Every structure is written in C-alpha cells, then in structure tokens.
Amino acid sequence: MHQPATSQRWIDLLTEEDVAFIKRLILTSGSLKDLAVAYSVSYPTVRLRLDRLIDKITALETRDGTDDYERLLRGLFAEGKLDESSFKLLRKTYLEQKPSP
C-alpha cells in the first residue's frame, strides 16, 4: 500500500547509525554476542543499544494520530537523546503552535 508523501515510514526516521546497527545485527544472524564482538563492546552494552532501538522503533511506528515530528520526538526520547522535561517542553510547544485540523 502506498503511503502519502507527508507521512514517513519509521525506518526513514532512523539515523544512519541505527540503520548500520540493524544491518550488522542481521549480518551476525541476530547474535548479540557476535555483535558485541564486532563493536568491541560488552554484551550488556549491545543489549541496551538494542532495547533503546526497539523502544525508538515502537515510538516511531505508533499511528495514534501523531504526525512525523511528534513521532520523531518520541523516538529521540525513547533512545535517551532527550530527557523527559525537554521532551515534554518540545511536545507541548509544538502542539500549541500546530494549526488545528
């Protein structure tokens, strides 16, 4: 099914780093242990990165009436790149300035 040009797919909202992580995960056949070796980090570090990416994708995939900007904010918050107070302030300001449908 074709999506309207104004609505991006969740994968289009991921960073290059996120896409590279997903690619490496696939190339290691989903083995977090092998992925940890590939990135030269510990298993818990890879697990945390994957959990944050899962939260981010879940937030970006949400289709509950939110638009691309709000989904992006939710994704950044899920990834830990925005703290809760910044997320709430940005979302509140955006919603106040957003034209009514």
Strand-residue fraction?
A: under 5%
Classify the secondary structure makeup into a structural class. mainly alpha
Count of domains: 1
Record field, number of beta strands: 0
Share of helix among residues?
55-70%
Order of helices and strands, N to C? HHHHH
Rg for CA atoms = 16 Å
Structure at a glance:
64% of the residues lie in helices and 0% in strands. By secondary structure, it is mainly alpha-helical. The protein has one domain (13-97).
Describe the structure.
The chain has one domain. Helices cover 64% and strands 0% of the residues. It contains 5 helices and no strands. The protein has helices at residues 16-27, 32-39, 43-61, 68-79, 84-97. The chain is elongated and about 50 Å long. The chain starts with 15 loop residues before the first helix and ends with a helix. Residues 1-6 have low confidence and may be disordered.
Topology:
Elements: H1 16-27, H2 32-39, H3 43-61, H4 68-79, H5 84-97
Helix pairs in contact: 2-3, 3-4, 4-5
What are the salient characteristics of this protein?
mainly alpha, 101 residues, single chain
